[in-house]
Amino acid sequence: MEAITIKDIARALNLSTSTVSRALRGSYEISPETKRLVMEYAERMEYRPNPIALSLKANRSKVLGVVVPQIANHFFSQAINGIEAIAYNRGYHVIIMQSHENYEREAIAVQQAVSRKVDGLLLSLSSQTVDVSHLQTLHDKQFPMVLFDRVAPSLNVPKITADNYEGAFAATEHLIRTGRRRIAHISIPAHVSITQERLAGYRDALQKHGLPYDETLVRHMGLGQHEMAPVVRELLGQSPPPDAFFTASDRLALGCMEALRLLGVRIPEQVALVGFTNVTVAHLLAPALTTIEQPAIEIGQLAAERLIDLIERPQHKTTTGVQKLPTRLVVRASTGSVTVAE
Description:
Keywords: DNA-binding, Transcription, Transcription regulation. Residues 4-58 form the HTH lacI-type domain. This is Transcriptional regulator, LacI family. With 342 residues, the chain is of the alpha/beta class. The chain has a 6-stranded parallel beta sheet, with helices on both faces. The chain has a 6-stranded mixed beta sheet with strand order 7-6-8-9-10-12, sandwiched between helices. α1 (6-13) crosses α2 and α8 (164-177) runs parallel beside α9. β3, α7 (133-140) and β4 form a beta-alpha-beta unit. It is built from 12 helices and 12 strands. It has 3 domains: 6-49, 434 Repressor (Amino-terminal Domain); 59-161 and 296-325, Response regulator (Rossmann fold, 3-Layer(aba) Sandwich); 164-295 and 329-335, Rossmann fold, CATH 3.40.50.2300. Helices cover 42% and strands 15% of the residues.
């Protein structure tokens, strides 16, 4: 059975197509009785609006483009859940693409999204992205765009992130208060925005408690867990060795935990460990992982709301600074339970 159209409804009820169209939109120009007749007939015949026709008429596709480094990453999968929830509630669909932490693939994904006529773009930068001219060009053309999590300070667009500084400060301070004094920090490439913010929180927590910042305890690396073993081995070879590891993500923490286990280092008796994200399995690890919880779903929701506002109210003044959502320290067995009085 072919889908029924507005013309079919108009012919069946002996009305004009414009009257039927206005009745379906609930226009005040149409009498209540006519609206009732049209709506009842449309429901009985299972009428559904043609989304392509609607988008052509409004010059909008009602589709949002989302580009993330990796869907398998727990944070990004949760953020996408938040994005899709808001998009669905506001009548939008979502196209999701991955950069796989690669700058060229990110640029291609952005180009593909625009060529598919998405109404706007939600994007978190790849770990390789330093040059954001591909995004600046879009912004110069007033293309609606919101960055989230990994952002570019030079782009004058709305940015939604976790409060990475406060999260890293809380993680480091927690380790200090449990008696740790040689805290190693392992993070992703140094140019990434979240790396810089988390490093600043780590440094300031050390300074607050009178501990020196030691560059030999800081490492920047890729995102592969297999790369962790030589880094951990090198750090433990220092004299004195670190008594704690604060990693800038739970994925790095998992790699660190595996490396420590292979080296026969006991957690937390010999070395404490803190991650950043709060992956769903963090409490199931042995020992359970102390970590910083990011509000991933809320970040996705807020980013989607900001983008849709940009699309639907282009003349409305929109805040283009960074909006930071609070993080939360989740204490588990990987840092022990002894708190040292200050």
